[in-house]
Amino acid sequence: MNHSNRRTFLGAAFLMATSAVGPGFLTQTVVFTQSLGASFGFVILTSVLLDIGVQLNVWRIMVVSGQRAQDIANQVFPGLGTGISLLIVLGGLAFNIGNIGGAGLGFDVLLGIPAHWGALIAAGISIAIFLVKEAGKLMDRFVQFMGLLIICLIIYVAFASEPPFSEALTKTFVPDRIDAISIVTLVGGTVGGYITFSGGHRLLDAGLTGKAVLPQVTQSAISGISVASLIRIFLFLAALGVVSKGLPLDAANPPASVFSQAAGTVGYKLFGVVMLSAAITSVIGSAYTSVSFIKSFSKPVQLYENWVIIGFIALSTIIYVWVGRPVQLLILAGALNGLILPVTLGSILLAANTKRIMGSYKHPVWLTVFGILVVLLMAWMGSYTLIQQLPQLFN
User: Fold this and answer.
1) d(Cα 126, Cα 97) in Å, to the nearest integer?
2) pLDDT value for 297
3) Closest CA to 93 of 314, 316, 285, 282
4) What are the phi and psi torsion angles at 119 (to 5°)?
5) How far apart are CA 211 and CA 215, in angstroms?
6) Can you tell me the distance from the alpha carbon of 92 to that of 122, in angstroms, rounded to the nearest whole number?
7) Distance CA 118, CA 105 (A)
8) pLDDT tens per residue across span 356-373
9) Looking at the predicted structure, is the pLDDT value of residue 352 above 60?
């Protein structure tokens, strides 16, 4: 495999990971650590296992078939792909509004720029990437750099907070309680909605398809989950260190409290860098992937894809400046994506065992069985979670 392809596979992994690691990811992790304590480690472990099963199923089927998720779904059942695309775009828009808000908050913390102006600057940076002729390659490099920056800073804060490592390890395997809402929200926020398709669609756009690249696809998919999970684990440890000492967290901005309580003023500024980096990469991933779900149905969107992506970012920014309310929106978006996941993964699994779509390819039985279990589990937990979360959004 040549250097360019290796870089694309790595870029796809980081695009998926940084699409997941946005303001909602940071907020959800801290909020659930505050409510569950060390037992949140079990939730993370469970979600990682589910995430890997989802990611491997989805990426393998798309790459072998050489088709995007919506096109596969339409072959399984006419109109299904169109419906999925609508849900993905709406979910992506909801996440992107929160992402833009998170970027504005990052600028506020880091440089003292008012959040609304910071949101506009962040939108401008994201848009600039898609004004470049080879936007895909620039996007790959940008998300890799930002992803590594986030990892380094969060590891520093995690050790600065001095968490109870032994308790965290014990409760990861023997939790005090199991919370379905946190599990479905984490899975929905990591591989739900548009996120699980981001890296896979990037590989398709780069022309990396067929059975010959399956080993690299598997490695890339697992790498993406590993990067996102590494960030989640160290953020959990950082929050646990603060919570276990009984230090207060600001309900309006829980992640910022963790960083400032763990490392003082320096930690607060580092939070600004992490929030800004996470938000901008998520804006890019959300916009890119959401538009990739509609370009199959429109020739003009295919021809002017980058401009449509720019329009998606601009629309998200306008809605944020007008509406706001990022924290509630981010929690609900994670739960909604968890409910979308059974539909999208279910259609992928049906395609995996349909010869007219997959040809001679034989999908591993264990992946099919695991995927079916995830579909059933997420359908049940996703419905329950959405029912629980909807009243809170309108309070």
Assistant:
1) 13
2) 85
3) 316
4) -65, -40
5) 9
6) 17
7) 7
8) 889 888 999 999 998 998
9) yes
* Of 49, 33, 40, 29, the residue nearest 175 (C-alpha): 40
> What 3-state class would DSSP assign to 185?
helix
Q: Which residues of 264-277 are buried (b: 16+ CB within 10 A; e: fewer)?
A: eeebbbbbbbbbbb
- Residue 77 dihedral angles phi and psi, to the nearest 5°: -150, 115
- The mean predicted confidence, pLDDT, of the chain is 87
Q: Are 14 and 224 in contact (CB under 8 A)?
A: yes
CATH architecture, domain defined by 3-393 = Up-down Bundle (1.20)
Distance of CA 136 to the CA centre of its chain: 18
CA-CA distance, 283 to 263, in Å (whole number)?
28
Q: What is the largest CA-CA distance in the chain?
A: 60
**pLDDT per position as a tens digit, 276-320:** 999 999 999 999 999 999 988 888 888 899 999 999 999 999 988
CB-neighbour burial class of residue 36 (10 A; exposed 0-12, middle 13-18, buried 19+): buried
Angle between helical axes of 3-20 and 254-292 (0-180°, round to 10): 130
Q: Which two tokens stand for residue 109?
A: 């913390």
Q: Give residue 166's pLDDT.
A: 94
- Tokens 């598997």 belong to residue: 218
Question: For residue 74, how far is the Cα from the chain centroid?
Answer: 24
Lowest mean pLDDT among 63-67, 173-177, 319-323: 319-323
Domain boundaries in the chain?
A: 3-393
pTM recorded for the entire structure: 0.87
pLDDT at position 1 is: 61
Helix axes 80-111, 115-129, angle to 10 degrees: 120
